[in-house]
């Protein structure tokens, strides 16, 4: 995927989705590791209002998502299922909950292919809201849980057979491990202490790798519609009342285990140093924040979550954190072909952060399990 897109080209692509408005500015948006994302600012047609008009323009990484049209089909299914519910939400939900809308081109297509066959699409921007890379406090943590709960709850009655698999193998930990093993045996760059450390770290945890997939195949955990990437910066917080108002980054909506989502949300939310810290030895899993996130989540999820699903929540927090470390480490060994990186050791550094977080989760296993049992009593 080419990292440099000429400004004029970008404007021409954005114009495909801009119908009549004049484009004023285009800037990179967010910190995504996969797609290229931009915020397009449009001329304000109502100068009397302070509301600026924006939309989000994205180039989908086709090395990661080989069939981007499936993403757009899933978004349509998602939208058709949820949009009608929003006018009539029951009391446990934020009445202002929004979902990003797909914008069409002048030819009424929901995507645009540029001259190099790159796949572009545009979505409405959730205005007056902020996305944070780290948790700002207990209220934010609670809202993160409520946000993910809202998302799962609104999708809980969707027939998952309607959703395509946009990214086969996503969160299937045994597959990531197989890929790692294949890369590891070919790897012959310089030996370094940190590489040995990661290899040993993975070796010591081989037995946890199939835990969620086994439960899925045995029918203990049901397939549901999931977000796939609910890290905290994908849950937008309303600037006015500080409530979770939307989930963005919807490319990995697909059938899966809500445990992938819960694990990912907690690993991201409870690491107060954030996943990009250079200070990996200082990384810990914050139990207090986990309590807030889970409390918020259960408050809404009690309508659909089955008590047996609680049994795997601890395992999922540990596993998805470990899995992301394994994915970053494999990509480091594989010359950074998957995750964008800013310097040569970047993916190694990211792996060390996730492994340290895994260690902190393991050292608090009893406390985390007690917490889940206690909070889960409302479900039984
Ligand atoms: C990737 O691109 P971004 O930042 O939304 C990745 C997630 C990881 C995340 C870690 C499709 O998401 O699985 O958890 O990086 N997305 C994909 O920051 O692989
Ligand atoms: Mg993402």
Which features would summarize this protein structure in a list?
single chain; 3-stranded antiparallel sheet; globular; alpha+beta; Aminoglycoside 3'-phosphotransferase, Chain: A, domain 2; 380 residues
Q: Care to describe what's here?
A:
The protein is α+β, with helices and mostly antiparallel strands. It folds into two domains: 1-125; 128-380, Aminoglycoside 3'-phosphotransferase, Chain: A, domain 2. 42% of the residues lie in helices and 12% in strands. The protein has helices at residues 7-17, 68-86, 138-155, 173-186, 193-203, 211-217, 258-269, 287-301, 307-310, 313-333, 346-363, 365-375, and strands at residues 23-28, 36-42, 53-60, 102-103, 112-113, 119-124, 129-130, 224-226, 235-238, 244-247, 254-256. Strands 1, 2, 3, 4, 5 and 6 form a six-stranded antiparallel beta sheet that branches. Strands 7-9-10 form a three-stranded antiparallel beta sheet, covered by helices on one side. Strands 8-11 form a two-stranded antiparallel ribbon. A hairpin with a 5-residue loop joins strand 5 and strand 6. The longest helix is centred in the last third of the chain and has 21 residues, at 313-333. Magnesium ion is lined by residues 32, 229, 249.
SSE diagram, text form:
Elements: H1 7-17, E1 23-28, E2 36-42, E3 53-60, H2 68-86, E4 102-103, E5 112-113, E6 119-124, E7 129-130, H3 138-155, H4 173-186, H5 193-203, H6 211-217, E8 224-226, E9 235-238, E10 244-247, E11 254-256, H7 258-269, H8 287-301, H9 307-310, H10 313-333, H11 346-363, H12 365-375
Helix pairs in contact: 3-7, 3-8, 4-10, 5-11, 7-10, 8-12, 10-11
The structure holds 2-acetamido-2-deoxy-1-O-phosphono-alpha-D-glucopyranose and magnesium ion.
């Amino acid at each position: 995927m080419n990292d440099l897109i000429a400004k004029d080209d970008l404007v021409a692509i954005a114009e495909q989705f801009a119908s009549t408005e004049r484009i004023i500015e285009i800037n990179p948006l967010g910190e995504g590791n996969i797609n290229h994302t931009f915020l397009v600012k449009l001329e304000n047609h109502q100068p009397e209002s302070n509301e600026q008009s924006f939309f989000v323009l994205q180039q989908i990484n086709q090395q990661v998502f080989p069939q981007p049209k499936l993403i757009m089909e899933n978004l349509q299914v998602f939208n058709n299922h949820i949009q009608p519910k929003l006018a009539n939400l029951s009391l446990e939900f934020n009445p202002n909950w929004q979902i990003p809308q797909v914008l069409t081109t002048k030819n009424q297509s929901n995507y645009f292919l540029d001259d190099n066959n790159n796949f572009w699409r545009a979505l409405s921007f959730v205005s007056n809201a902020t996305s944070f890379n780290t948790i700002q406090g207990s209220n934010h943590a609670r809202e993160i849980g409520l946000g993910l709960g809202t998302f799962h709850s609104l999708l809980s009655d969707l027939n998952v057979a309607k959703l395509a698999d946009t990214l086969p193998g996503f969160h299937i930990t045994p597959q990531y491990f197989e890929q790692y093993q294949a890369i590891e045996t070919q790897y012959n760059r310089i030996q370094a202490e940190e590489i040995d450390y990661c290899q040993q770290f993975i070796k010591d945890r081989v037995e946890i790798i199939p835990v969620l997939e086994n439960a899925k195949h045995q029918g203990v955990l049901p397939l549901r519609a999931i977000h796939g990437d609910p890290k905290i910066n994908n849950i937008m917080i309303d600037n006015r009342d500080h409530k979770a108002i939307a989930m963005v980054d919807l490319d990995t909506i697909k059938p899966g285990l809500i445990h992938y989502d819960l694990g990912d949300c907690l690993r991201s939310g409870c690491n107060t140093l954030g996943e990009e810290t250079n200070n990996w030895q200082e990384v810990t899993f914050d139990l207090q924040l986990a309590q807030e996130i889970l409390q918020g989540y259960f408050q809404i999820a009690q309508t659909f979550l089955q008590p047996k699903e609680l049994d795997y929540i601890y395992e999922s927090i540990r596993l998805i954190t470990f899995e992301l470390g394994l994915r970053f480490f494999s990509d480091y060994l594989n010359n950074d072909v998957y995750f964008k990186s800013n310097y040569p050791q970047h993916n190694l550094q990211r792996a060390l952060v996730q492994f340290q977080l895994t260690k902190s989760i393991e050292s608090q296993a009893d406390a985390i399990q007690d917490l889940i049992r206690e909070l889960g009593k409302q479900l039984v």
